[in-house]
Amino acid sequence: MKLLSYRGPEGESCGALVDGGIVDLATANPGWRSFALALADVGTEGIARALSELASTAPRLALGSVVLRPVVPDAGKILCVGLNFEKHRIETGRERTEHPVIFTRFPDTFVGHDTQLVRPAESERFDFEGELALVIGRGGRRIAREKALDHIAGVTCLNDGSIRDFQSHTHQFTPGKNFPATGAMGPWVVTLDEAGDPADLELTTRLNGVEVQRAPLSDLTYSIPEIVAYCSSWTELRPGDVIATGTPGGIGARREPQMWMKPGDLCEVEIPGVGVLRNTITDEA
Closest Cα to residue 107, out of 48, 35, 38, 54? Predict the structure, then answer.
């Protein structure tokens, strides 16, 4: 399944992409106007059952008639893994750590597919970071590595857009990662029964059509099961939580000359089998 969040003629809702059109999940249950609530209520299996019942009768919204939102706009937690590709760690000059580097982003820092990323007035050092993100489908604490994939509803593309000068104010990443509308998530969540093992996927980032990042997800320093197990050891993961798994080498800050996203640019994050997340860049009004 491809599950998405959007703003349509009837307001904000979530749905599934079926035969090129959107089936509104609120058609099956009026309480399912939130993707996280639908996951918490019945999980991906329940959503699939509801869609199979609606397949022949539910009206379809044209994909072009809605504005796509971040796939989980109401995520309770957005956890991000830093320095999780060896090439990226080396280009930053940081030492390898015994445990994953984790920081957080707020939901209002993300926009959806085909909408604009906003370069804030405080900075011109707006960098790209293509990533694979996990969406939790079944919550838990102290999840064992061998059970980790059972807790993942699906995967999506993510651009962890970063304001580099604010990020370097201290050794804490938070300020440079949480300006409004600087990250993107989408276009949809692809459930694991369709996407397969996330470790078999490959990620590419392009800026204005030029490839700037490429890496297989098998190159992660800390694997997806390790990340889920570690995060759930210190916080309870809940349906709809998001974990961004890290960016490959090639970021703009470490290039010669440096490469920043600027108004009019087009940034794309592609993961075959998942989708292409596409965003243009604008300046803050």
Answer: 35
CA-angle at 258, arms to 254 and 260, nearest 5°: 110
Measured between alpha carbons, how far is 273 from 284 in angstroms, rounded to an integer? Answer: 33
Output b/e per residue, 116-138; b: 16+ Cβ within 10 A: ebbbeeebebbbbbbbbbbbbbb
Q: CATH number of the domain at 78-283, please?
A: 3.90.850.10
- What is the full per-residue pLDDT of the chain (285 aa) written as tens digits? 999 999 998 899 999 999 889 999 988 899 898 889 999 999 999 999 998 888 778 888 999 999 999 999 999 999 999 888 777 677 766 677 789 999 999 999 999 999 999 999 999 999 999 999 999 999 999 999 999 999 999 999 999 999 999 988 888 889 999 999 999 999 999 999 999 999 999 999 999 999 999 999 999 999 999 999 999 999 999 999 999 999 999 999 999 999 999 999 999 999 999 999 999 999 999
Closest CA relative to residue 39, chosen from 8, 93, 75 = 75
Query: Do the beta carbons of residue 266 and residue 279 sit within 8 Å?
Result: yes
Question: 191, 164, 177, 152: which is closest to 252 by C-alpha?
Answer: 164
Domain map (residue ranges) of the chain:
2-68, 78-283
CA angle 230, 241, 14 (to 5 degrees): 155
